[in-house]
């Protein structure tokens, strides 16, 4: 018996989250709508840039080198900085406002933050499209004879950073307000996570300022050439790509409650510890990005290698909490069968479909991330197409799909409209994942063979292996599939945002809040088995990589591989 | 709480977060674990006692440039390639061994009976390598000394089903001990974006 009793929520009923979003003051709604719109614009620009880049690498389009690298710059800047950070800022603000129940605190600061971020967005997009291509890390050494490009590029990120700080301070003040008013004695787990997330945004903004202010000063003739930009970038970059993962996990918490009524069965304290763990485990693990640096000391190499094993601790723990809570609650409602409980989840809701497939993509991404971070394997894989091959599982499959899921829940409440064609939207995450599987499989194979990640013409006068262009063509096919599917999702979200027609019909949710049986009494094996499968996959691909190294026709020591 | 199945208890859930740490076992099996237990050694066996480290200790950029220029001049071939065994080949020398370039002063390749690795110098600059074609021998250990002359580059070697990625920072001399175990023609290419003609930046290592 796989059915679950009393599982469907009443049509037209609003959850606490959507009711509070709907009740926000008009000025807050205007700010949030502005930021949601800007974030989606950044996603569209990044998606177009990435799609064209993939087609050019596949040989389907031809560009002059500078134009090709401008496209790549536009792709990285738009997606990695402006989509992921604008959407984080606005989700942090809207969730904080909903948590508070009375809208945003320090509203002028939140508006100032939005203005700064949008100014940064404009500056970055303009210089990426017209200046010396600097890729998304903006290395000044690429434009030592073009201070204007370096300066405007740095200015864009600095404005974004300043805006993030202002938004984060407003967000922190907002989640603190109930306590200051004496309406709450402690944070909820979501409130605590928002507090930590906002704090982490401030830390990242400081790291960004540390990385890019020297470039701006140099371009103005007010400072020396920023020769150590690479090191500062590594520190920033590590935080930059784990912060969206923390945001993703928080959104999963929120959406799980929204879509099923289930909160963690393990108590708020464990959730708070897990969110705090991001601050403990993420910053120290940044050393593994430097394994290829020729002057990295042996002690740093050993410590970095050891710490890298711990980078997934908070994410896997949060995953285990969510899955265990959902499974235990489903079983308390009578669900049986090893995995049968999952059929009770509201899969017809596009937000649920996006979240569910995001979890699948996370498993794939983590598997290969742990191959790359191995100190001895880094000299085979870093700087190759292995990197985009695996991180698109994260950037597209996990982060983007999760944030789109949040938009599918929040935007109808914010604007009072209706989710656009949920039956169509719910099919897209599977299609995105199919595209990512093709893209990732070909990209990862290409990376193992050494295809460089930032080269458009990989012919090398006919010396390159014949398999390289074939693999890049497959990458282009995979990119086409997931770009089309993602475009449909983005279009649906934009139509939802612009929708002004309220509807009583809402995307389906279930209510597993209370069960007839004791929650947690039945075994919940889905989480442990998923993690076991993940670790097994990590073992397999790590062994494959070691075997490839051992079978290669050289014996090499040193150069980022020392002992 | 005591009625809960162990799979739904907090301690078990928290422990799951640490699951990936168990990958240490796979690393240890290949001698790549960072701590002494499980054995910390190189994934590939070291052919000589020299070992290796990223940056070549003590070699200044100016010294590298001098040695590089000398290396290229001394071993330049008519076809434009550079062959550090040219002298020994001309005198019917042993194909194996070779004297460390730096250790031997400027008498490169003159004492090919030694087990010391043969020094090879590779300079990366926009948008080429110097030398761009190297002629080496299988089974001979080489001490590659490499440096980027202007901005950051890569000097990566394509090895069939795998590759060896090397990142070169400007004015930092990077050292690798490399022994090619099979003859063939290997592509050397830049894996760090370095500007407009980055795609064209490549060279060859021809191993006989």
From TrEMBL, chain A:
It comes from the Bacteria. Residues 40-523 form the Cytochrome oxidase subunit I profile domain. Gene3D superfamilies: Cytochrome c oxidase-like, subunit I domain. It holds the Pfam family COX1. The chain crosses the membrane at residues 30-56, 76-97, 109-129, 149-175, 187-213, 233-253, 273-291, 303-323, 351-373, 393-415, 427-450, 470-494, 529-549. This is Cytochrome oxidase subunit I profile domain-containing protein. Keywords: Electron transport, Membrane, Respiratory chain, Transmembrane, Transmembrane helix, Transport. It comes from Azospirillum melinis.
């Amino acid at each position: 018996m796989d059915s679950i009793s009393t599982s469907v929520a009443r049509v037209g009923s609003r959850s606490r989250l959507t009711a509070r979003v709907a009740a926000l003051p008009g000025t807050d709604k205007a700010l949030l709508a502005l930021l949601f719109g800007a974030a989606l614009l950044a996603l569209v620009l990044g998606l177009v840039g990435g799609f064209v880049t993939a087609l050019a690498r596949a040989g389907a389009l031809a560009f002059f080198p500078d134009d090709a690298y401008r496209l790549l710059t536009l792709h990285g800047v738009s997606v990695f900085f402006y989509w992921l950070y604008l959407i984080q800022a606005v989700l942090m603000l809207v969730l904080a406002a909903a948590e508070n129940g009375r809208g945003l605190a320090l509203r002028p600061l939140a508006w100032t933050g939005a203005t700064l971020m949008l100014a940064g967005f404009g500056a970055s997009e303009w210089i990426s499209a017209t200046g010396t291509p600097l890729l998304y890390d903006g290395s000044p050494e690429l434009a030592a004879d073009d201070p204007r490009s370096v300066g405007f590029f740095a200015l864009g990120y600095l404005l974004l950073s300043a805006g993030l700080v202002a938004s984060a301070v407003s967000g922190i003040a907002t989640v603190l307000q109930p306590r200051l008013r004496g309406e709450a004695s402690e944070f909820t787990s979501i409130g605590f996570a928002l507090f930590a997330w906002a704090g982490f945004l401030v830390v990242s903004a400081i790291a960004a300022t540390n990385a890019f202010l020297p470039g701006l000063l140099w371009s103005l003739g007010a400072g020396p050439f920023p020769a150590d930009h690479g090191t500062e970038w590594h520190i920033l970059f590590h935080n930059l790509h784990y912060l969206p993962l923390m945001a993703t996990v928080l959104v999963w918490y929120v959406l799980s409650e929204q879509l099923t009524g289930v909160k963690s069965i393990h108590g708020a304290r464990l959730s708070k510890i897990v969110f705090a763990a991001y601050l403990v485990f993420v910053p120290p693990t940044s050393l593994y990005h430097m394994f290829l640096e020729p002057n990295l000391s042996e002690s740093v190499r050993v410590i970095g290698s050891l710490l890298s094993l711990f980078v997934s601790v908070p994410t896997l723990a949060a995953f285990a909490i969510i899955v265990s809570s959902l499974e235990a609650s489903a079983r308390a409602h009578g669900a049986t069968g090893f995995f049968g409980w999952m059929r009770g989840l509201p899969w017809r809701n596009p937000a649920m479909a996006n979240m569910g497939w995001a979890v699948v993509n996370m498993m794939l991404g983590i598997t290969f991330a742990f191959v790359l971070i191995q100190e001895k394997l880094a000299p085979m894989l870093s700087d190759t197409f292995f990197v985009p091959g695996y991180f698109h599982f994260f950037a597209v499959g996990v982060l983007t799909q999760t944030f789109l899921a949040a938009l599918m829940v929040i935007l109808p409440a914010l604007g009072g409209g209706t989710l656009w064609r949920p039956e169509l939207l719910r099919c897209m995450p599977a299609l995105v994942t199919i595209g990512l599987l093709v893209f990732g499989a070909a990209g990862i194979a290409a990376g193992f063979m050494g295809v460089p990640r930032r080269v458009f013409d990989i012919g090398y006068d006919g010396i390159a292996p014949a398999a390289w262009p074939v693999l890049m063509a497959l990458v282009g096919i995979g990119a086409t599939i997931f770009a089309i599917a993602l475009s449909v999702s983005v279009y649906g979200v934009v139509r939802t945002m612009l929708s002004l027609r309220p509807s009583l019909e809402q995307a389906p949710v279930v209510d597993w809040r209370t069960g007839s049986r004791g929650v947690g009494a039945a075994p919940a094996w889905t989480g442990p088995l998923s993690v076991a499968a993940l670790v097994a996959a990590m073992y397999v691909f790590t062994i494959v990589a070691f075997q490839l190294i051992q079978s290669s026709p050289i014996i090499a020591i040193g150069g980022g591989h020392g002992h | 709480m005591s009625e809960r199945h162990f799979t739904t208890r907090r301690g078990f859930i928290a422990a799951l977060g640490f699951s990936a740490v168990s990958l240490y076992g796979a690393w240890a099996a290949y001698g790549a674990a960072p701590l002494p237990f499980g054995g910390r050694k190189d994934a590939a066996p070291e052919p000589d006692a020299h070992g290796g480290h990223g940056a070549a200790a003590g070699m200044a950029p100016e010294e590298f440039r001098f040695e590089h220029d000398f290396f290229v001049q001394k071993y330049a071939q008519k076809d434009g390639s550079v062959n550090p065994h040219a002298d020994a080949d001309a005198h019917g020398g042993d194909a194996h061994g070779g004297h460390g370039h730096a250790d031997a002063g400027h008498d490169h390749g003159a004492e090919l009976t030694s087990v010391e690795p043969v020094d090879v110098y590779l300079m990366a600059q926009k948008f080429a390598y110097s030398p761009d074609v190297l002629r080496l021998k299988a089974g001979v250990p080489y001490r590659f000394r490499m440096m980027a002359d202007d901005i950051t580059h890569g000097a990566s070697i394509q090895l069939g089903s795998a590759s060896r990625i090397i990142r070169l920072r400007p004015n930092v001399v990077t050292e690798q001990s490399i022994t090619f175990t099979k003859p063939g023609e290997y592509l050397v290419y830049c894996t760090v974006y370095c500007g407009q003609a980055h795609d064209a930046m490549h060279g060859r290592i021809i191993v006989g």
